[in-house]
């Protein structure tokens, strides 16, 4: 999301150098490029004019702090204005009452039904007890789609079979929620291919019957400037309380998200970040602004990690690493948790890596995910006993595994060797961590000996597995398995801090 805009803005600010004050002269070119970048991102023209005007008013004549370049100062101003453009402070859903009613509006194809299922799952994880109401009686199979989603996430769906009376379905859904103790009612309403009087009249009647606390307008991120007209029309008739931007992961421009808040005055409350039913997140303007400017979004990544990783399970894994009992089965559990964070491309986009372009991210993630698939195939071709005790795998078993996964025997052997080396490194890391903790608490050191890995080299706390020469038993080569680094495509350079010879190699060192 916002990849195109992010790259353009980073290029603009990288070219602004020199001077002790932000003036019209040294900003003219930069702001012209910012305007072009926003236009290419499909942001509404009137929104762009207002945004550029505010940035210029704040920036012209502003003194640059010592040791801060004008480009850095301008980035701060653009960041602050982007936050305002995206809505300022984050605003969550209103869920204060004993029974909260949320109605979803939007055009046909905007993603209302899928968003309804995603939101129901999200609210249940937060401790709510939701009931979904299928009130889209016009689109073929819309009701069946929501019922299928309900079965998948084990959340009930209410409808009246064969009925086309939207108000009757809404009323009966409300009655069921009250009678059966549901505290959240999610209503999926009908849409049209375009806004018409009949649709608006029906939605107004549903609103009057249910009197919802939240009226959420679902907008497809890929509709660009058309989203502005849709948002204005719905808001003028229904006075929506918030906006949901769906399919944001599939739009590299992000013009809809950057336009609708400004023209409607209503906050974006939720964003769709993937096709998975877990791909719905609260919207945080400040985090999104930092992501657009290439500063990453570590806070959101940490929040995802907290959901994906179980603390008790992590402690059990640590104990296994300490005792060298970490198995391939445990490795696959960790891999499954990492997948819950999102694709490697998404994760890289949330890390503050200066100069990391979309093409670089895609190349790294494609290579990394390809190697992880190979690992999964190898492990899946093993027996349960072999996964739990990799040391059981002898030459004949390697041949059987290789035949089962369709890979060369050498690849299987290399992976097992590197997995064993990784286990050794993990054991040493846990010992080193224990030693550092004891050093930090002298009272705990009484009668205890300092770990050899720390005594051996006081200047190098990494001990025997210092990163310069590689991991234990591994060939030299800057710490990379196999000692080889794949070459980058001609003309492509990695950002500062990365080895310019190429990308980290795959797990097989090829």
Which characteristics define this entry?
510 residues, Four Helix Bundle (Hemerythrin (Met), subunit A), 8-stranded mixed beta sheet, globular, Rossmann fold, 434 Repressor (Amino-terminal Domain), alpha/beta
Verbal overview:
The radius of gyration is 28 Å and the shape is globular. The chain has three domains: 3-85, SRP54, nucleotide-binding domain (Four Helix Bundle (Hemerythrin (Met), subunit A), Up-down Bundle); 100-296, 3-Layer(aba) Sandwich (Rossmann fold), CATH 3.40.50.300; 308-457, Orthogonal Bundle (434 Repressor (Amino-terminal Domain)), CATH 1.10.260. It is of the alpha/beta class and 510 residues long. The protein has an eight-stranded mixed beta sheet with strand order 3-2-4-1-5-6-7-8, with helices on both faces. The protein is built from 20 helices and eight strands. Helix content is 52%, strand content 8%. A hairpin with a 7-residue loop joins strand 7 (268-272) and strand 8. Helix 3 packs across helix 4 (70-85).
Which helices and strands appear, and what pairs or packs with what?
Layout: H1 3-14, H2 24-40, H3 45-59, H4 70-85, E1 100-105, H5 112-125, E2 130-135, H6 142-153, E3 157-158, H7 166-180, E4 184-189, H8 197-210, E5 214-220, H9 226-238, E6 242-246, H10 255-264, E7 268-272, E8 280-282, H11 285-292, H12 298-308, H13 311-322, H14 328-339, H15 344-349, H16 358-380, H17 384-388, H18 395-405, H19 409-440, H20 452-456
Parallel strand pairs: 1-4, 1-5, 2-3, 2-4, 5-6, 6-7
Antiparallel strand pairs: 7-8
Helix pairs in contact: 1-2, 2-3, 3-4, 4-11, 5-6, 7-8, 9-10, 16-18, 18-19
């Amino acid at each position: 999301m916002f990849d195109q805009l992010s790259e353009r803005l980073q290029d603009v600010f990288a070219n602004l150098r020199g001077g002790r004050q932000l003036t019209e002269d040294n900003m003219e070119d930069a702001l012209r490029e910012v305007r072009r970048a926003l236009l290419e991102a499909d942001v509404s023209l009137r929104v762009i004019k207002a945004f550029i005007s505010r940035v210029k008013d704040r920036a012209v004549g502003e003194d640059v702090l010592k040791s801060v370049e004008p480009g850095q100062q301008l980035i701060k101003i653009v960041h602050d204005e982007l936050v305002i453009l995206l809505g300022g402070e984050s605003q969550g859903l209103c869920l204060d009452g004993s029974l909260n009613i949320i109605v979803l509006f939007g055009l046909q194809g905007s993603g209302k039904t899928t968003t309804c299922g995603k939101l129901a799952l999200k609210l249940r994880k937060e401790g709510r007890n939701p009931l979904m109401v299928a009130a889209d009686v016009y689109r073929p199979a819309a009701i069946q789609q929501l019922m299928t989603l309900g079965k998948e996430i084990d959340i009930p769906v209410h409808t009246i079979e064969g009925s086309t009376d939207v108000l009757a379905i809404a009323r009966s859904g409300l009655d069921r929620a009250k009678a059966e103790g549901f505290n959240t009612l999610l209503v999926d309403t009908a849409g049209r291919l375009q806004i018409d009087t009949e649709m608006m009249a029906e939605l107004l009647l549903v609103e009057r019957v249910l009197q919802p606390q939240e009226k959420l307008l679902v907008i497809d991120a890929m509709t660009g400037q058309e989203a502005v007209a849709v948002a204005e029309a719905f808001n003028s008739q229904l006075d929506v309380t918030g906006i949901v931007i769906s399919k944001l992961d599939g739009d590299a421009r992000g013009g809809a998200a950057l336009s609708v808040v400004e023209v409607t005055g209503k906050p974006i409350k939720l964003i769709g970040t993937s096709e998975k039913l877990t791909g719905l997140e609260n919207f945080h303007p400040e985090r999104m602004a930092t992501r657009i400017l290439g500063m990453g979004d570590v806070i959101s990544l940490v929040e995802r990690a907290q959901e994906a990783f179980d603390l008790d399970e992590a402690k059990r894994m640590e104990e296994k690493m300490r005792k060298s009992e970490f198995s391939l089965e445990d490795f696959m559990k960790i891999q499954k948790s990492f997948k819950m964070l999102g694709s490697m491309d998404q994760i890289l986009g949330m890390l503050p890596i200066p100069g990391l372009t979309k093409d670089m991210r895609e190349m790294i993630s494609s290579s990394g995910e390809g190697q992880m698939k190979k690992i999964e195939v190898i492990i899946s071709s093993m027996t349960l006993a072999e996964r739990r005790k990799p040391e059981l795998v002898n030459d004949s078993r390697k041949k059987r595994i290789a035949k089962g996964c369709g890979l060369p025997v050498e690849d299987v052997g290399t992976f097992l060797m590197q997995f064993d080396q990784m286990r050794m490194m993990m054991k040493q890391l846990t010992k080193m961590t224990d030693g550092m903790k004891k050093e930090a608490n002298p009272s705990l050191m009484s009668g205890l000996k300092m770990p050899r890995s720390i005594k051996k080299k006081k200047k190098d706390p990494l001990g025997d597995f210092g990163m310069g020469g590689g991991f234990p038993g591994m060939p030299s080569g800057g710490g990379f398995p196999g000692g080889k680094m794949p070459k980058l495509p001609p003309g492509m350079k990695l950002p500062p801090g990365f080895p310019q010879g190429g990308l980290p190699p795959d797990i097989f060192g090829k």
